[in-house]
Amino acid sequence: MFEFLNEPVALTVTTALLGLFVGSFLNVVIHRLPKMMELEWQAQAAELRGEAITEPAVRFNLATPRSRCPHCGHQITAVENIPVVSFLVLRGRCRHCKAPIGVRYPIVEILTGVLSAFAAWRFGYSMALLGALGFLWAMVALTFIDLDTQLLPDNLTLPLLWLGLLFNLPGTFTELSSAVVGAVAGYLTLWSVYWLFKLVTGKEGMGYGDFKLLAAIGAWLGWQMLPLTILLSSAVGALVGISLIVFARHGRNVPIPFGPYLAAAGVLALFFGEDLTTRYLALL
Q1: SS3 labels along 18-50
Q2: How many CB atoms lie within 10 A of CB 140?
Q3: Which of 54, 132, 190, 220 has its C-alpha lying 20 to 30 A from 166's C-alpha?
Q4: CA distance 69 to 47
Q5: What are the two backbone dihedrals, phi and then psi, of residue 144, each rounded to the nearest 5 degrees?
Q6: Residue 93 forms beta bridges with which residues?
Q7: pLDDT in tens, 179-213
Q8: What is the pTM of this model?
Q9: pLDDT tens for residues 143-158?
């Protein structure tokens, strides 16, 4: 039934289209998951205070209510929700009130589509492609959630970690022993940096979500990719942070999320990890 997917071009195009539609769904996840977490925290806090927990008038999750324009409340139809195409046809504006639609939406869709297509080209029609797609889609969602809220939800990082171990049971990306050590080492590495920084400065340098994200990357790619991931994320994070302080007058005391740099480094390690490590060692 899916024999045509054995053709590289057909597989790449099909996966790119799938990535565009998944990117549209990821926009929903990025927007709603933090709000769902906030509602859950409020309910837990009310329960601890002994207050009666009232059910919200409208259910709020990833499926309901239907997406609406934040300006006029116009319900987005299926035709208006075609990835990228609808944004271009509507010229980036709501069809009802003409309010601008954030450019973030097509960016997430295009980014997800491009990464998905590259994964198809890199891994072919295989179990590795299925795993790579799950890994990449999670990285996209975590990146933009962290940029918006400086949160890396356990709802995403912990399942991602366990899925990495499961995919490596047959050695899809690395040996299972390497994946287990990678998960442990990834968590403990940033956990140690966190406590060392706190002991020296009295401040928190990063959140626990960063530990879990690096643990998940280690579970998928193995402990061998952790040095490269940490090096790349630290270098890019430092460069961006200094640029924001110098050129954008970003306050030194204003926190900068580290998750996007970890995610970007994890994606690079997934695609080019062995080549980058070999070249780095050759330079040394």
Answers
A1: HHHHHHHHHHHHHHHHHHHHHHHHHHHHHHHCC
A2: 24
A3: 190
A4: 33
A5: -75, -30
A6: 100
A7: 999 999 999 999 999 899 888 888 877 888 999 99
A8: 0.92
A9: 999 999 999 999 999 9
